[in-house]
Amino acid sequence: MLKDKIVFISGASSGIGEAAAVRFAKEGAILIICARNLEKLDALKEQLVKDYGVEVHTYKLDVRDKKAINSVFESMPERLKNIDILVNNAGLAQGLEKVQEEDMEDFDVMIDTNIKGLLYLTRKVVPIMINNGRGHVINIGSTAGIVAYPGGTVYCATKAAVKFISDGLRMDVVDTPIKVTNIQPGMVETNFSVIRFHGDKEKADAVYEGIEPLTAEDIADVILYTASVPAHVQICEVTVTPTHQATAGVVHKEKVSK
To answer: Which of 149, 155, 163, 258 does the annotation list as catalytic?
Structure first.
């Protein structure tokens, strides 16, 4: 079902985005992969072409930059603009301080990336999908968008926004064949926590001690499944956590001997 479908993935240079690119490549999709790190994207492209013989296009893109998004689409061959699946994956958390103590630069980065960047890409792609009479928008939300947790005020708010943007968009396109899915992962061990702690890997590793977290591949499997169901089926929302995580803030961890 996915062979030769055009799939656009933001934040594809690592983590869930990279794993999703691999999954779609295995299915023979045509990939447009974007991220801020072009070197990593090009290395991923080389590997995907070698392993699966698929067509892959890479673009350096910071989703916070509307002009950069416009530039990518202007430079893209016309046939590639007919995107079948948009995976709004680019997103991040910065810091774990109380809101009254957090660096306001972190506010801007999270809001501009997680909310505005997602909206910019959605606004660019959905009219094309409507015009073509087909399409699927897959947003990567978070359990943090369902229940808040201490130190995550702004991040949780941005992921709550992803949920409501997904729900609202689904209503906006209900008279079209366009599908909208919001995937809400719990604890996934990627470079997410390294970014949150501004490169402090020791702090990042401690987040996952005592629990077996999800992997990027686990979430990529869910993304692929939601994209593979029949045309009359729309999976609106999926929440996925490790077995020992109930909500964003309720986690059971085994004691780890040092």
So the answer is: 155
Dihedral sign, CA of 130, 135, 117, 100?
positive
Average pLDDT, the chain: 96
pLDDT band for position 257 (cuts 50, 70, 90): low
pLDDT of residue 1: 87
Q: In the prediction, which pLDDT does 28 show?
A: 98
Q: In the numeric block, which tokens belong to residue 195?
A: 């970014």
Q: Determine whether 45 is an active site residue.
A: no
Q: For this structure, is 59 an active site residue? A: no
Catalytically annotated residue among 5, 45, 124, 159: 159
Structure tokens at 217: 């591949």
- The mean pLDDT value for 231-247 works out to 97
Q: Which of 167, 189, 191 is nearest to 92 (CA)?
A: 191
Question: Which residue do the tokens 């992969």 mark?
Answer: 33
Element (H, E) at 171: helix 153-172
User: What is the pTM assigned to this prediction?
Assistant: 0.96
Task: List the beta bridge partners of residue 240.
Answer: 185
Instruction: Please tell me the chain's helix, strand, coil percentages from 3-state DSSP, rounded to the nearest 5.
Output: 45, 15, 40
* Cα distance between residue 64 and residue 44, in whole Å: 23
Domains of the chain and CATH, by start: 6-240 (3.40.50.720)
Q: Are 247 and 185 in contact (CB under 8 A)?
A: no
Strands 30-35, 56-60: parallel, antiparallel or unpaired by DSSP? parallel
The sign one gets for the Cα dihedral 138, 144, 148, 154 is negative
Q: Compute the distance between CA of residue 241 and CA of residue 245 in angstroms, rounded to an integer.
A: 6
